[in-house]
Structure prediction request, 528 residues.
Amino acid sequence: MNVVRVKGLHKYYGDLHAVKGVDLEVEEGSIHAILGPNGAGKTTTIKCLLGILKPQKGEVEVLGSSDPEKVLSSISYVPEEKEFYEFLTPVKAVRFCERFVEKFDPSKAIELIKEFRLPENARIGTFSHGMKTQLYLSLALAQNASLFVFDEPTWGLDPIVRNVVLDMIRELSGERTVLYTSHILPEVEKIADKVSIMVRGRFVFHGELEEAKRNFKYIVFDTEVDLPRNLVVATIKKTGAFIAVVYGEDNLQKVKELYPGKARVEEMNLEDIFMSLVRGDSNDDE
Amino acid sequence: MMMNELIKMRIRTLVIFLIMVATLVSLVVLRPFPEFVRKLLGDPAKLLENLKKDDYYLWSQWFGKNLVQFVPLIALLIAFPVFSREVEHGTIYYLLTRSPRSRVYMSKVLTGLFVNASMLIVLSILPAFVAWLLKWNVNYSKFPGYTLHTVCGGTFFLALYMLFSILSSDQVKPIVLGIIVMIGDAFLGMLKPLRFLNVYPYMAGTSVYAGHGVDWVYTFSLLILSVLLLVVGWYRFKNAEF
Prediction:
C-alpha cells in the first residue's frame, strides 16, 4: 500500500517552475529518500504534500486522503528550518506539544532530550543550531505518527549525533513510513530502502538503491563517439576518455553493439550515479 | 491550544498592563496639575475649573486622554506578532503540520480578542475602583458605557492589526502599518467630511460622558467591520503559502 501518492505535481513561484509534473509513490513501512542537489525541488514537493504550499496542478494523496489537513494527526514533520519557540525551555516545549499535538508522548520526548544530553531547563534561544535540531527531532519523534517526513534532518549535526539520528530514523521503518530528503549520499545509502533522485524540478530516478547500482553503468570509450540520446543518461568527456552513462541491460547491450570491442563497462557507485544524473552531460576538461 | 497562545502573549500583556496601571496612578497622584502643566495650559480657566470636578477629571484624563491613546497601541502590541512572528521565525511549520489551519487561526484570534478585551475591561473599570477608594464624586453608571466603547474600539483595531500580521512575513511591516493607521486615523478626524472615521472620540466615550448614552450605531458599525476584517484575515490565512 502506498502512503504517499503524487501525480503530475506542478508548482510555480512566479515565473520559476520549481516542480515540473512529478510523480511519487511511497510504500507503507519503507524509508524513502528524495535525493537531490540544493534547489532541486525536494522541499517544495514535501511542502505541497503537507498542504503548506498549494500546487498549481496535480494530485496529492497522503495516508489515503487528498486533504492533508484531515490526516495531520498521523504525520510528524521536521522542516528544513528546525526552529522552535526560543522563549521556551525543552521541558516547557514538551508541555507545549502535549497541549497542541494529538498523538504526543511527553515521556518519550523527555527520554530523547536526555539521550541527546540537551539542557532541560535552558532557553532554546541559547541553543546552537545542532542543539535546536536535536530538540526538534526529539519532539517530532515523540509523536505517535504513521508518516514521518524529515527535510534534511541531519544538517548541521556532528558525525556522532548524525549517526544516532540515522539509527533512530532506521528504527522507525517497518511500522512507520519515513519520507526523507537529503543531499548527503552516504546518509541515504545507510538508511533508505528506496530513493527518488530529483534534479531541476523533476524526478530522474525512482527505485531501490541496489537496483540503481545494478542498472546504472559507465561505458568508457578511448575517443569520443556518437551515441543516440535515447540510449544514454549522460555523457562525460575526460582527457583520453569519453564516458557514457546508461541505464538498464538493454541499453547497455545496444551501445556495446554500436561500437563492438571499443566499449569498456565499469560499475558505478551511488555518488557516481547521483553526480551523472545531476550534472548531465559534462566536459571535465573545461 | 489557547493556553499556548496565552503563554506566548504573557510578557507583553503584563508589561502593557503595568504601564497602564502606572499611568492611572500617575494621573491620580498628579492631581491637581503641577505648576508647570498649569503654565503650559495658559489660562484655560474653564478647563481648570472643570478639572476640579472629580467626574470630569477622571473621564477627561483617563478615558479621554490616556486610555484612548493606548487602546490602538495595546491592540497593536498584542496583534502584530501573532502570525508574523511565527512566519518570520519558521515556527509556523510546526503549527500548520500538526493542526488544521482553522484551529490555528481560531486559537490565535480568540486568544488575542480575549486578552485585548480583558485588559480593556479591567482598565475601564479600574478607575471606578480607584475613585471609590479615594471617595471621589463620580457617576458610576457611565462606566459600563465607557467600557463598551473602549472594548469595541479596541476590538476593531485588534482585528485590523491581526490582518496586518497575517499579510506580513516579518514583524516590522505590521508595526509600521499599525503606526500609520494610528496617526492617520487622528488626522482623518481633522477633515470634516471624514470625521466619522476618527475612532478616538468614540473610544473616549464622549457621547456617554455628555449624557447621550452608548453610541449604538457606531458600536455596531465597528463590530461589523471587525468581523469583516477577521473573515478577510481567515481567507488570507487559509490560502497563504509558507
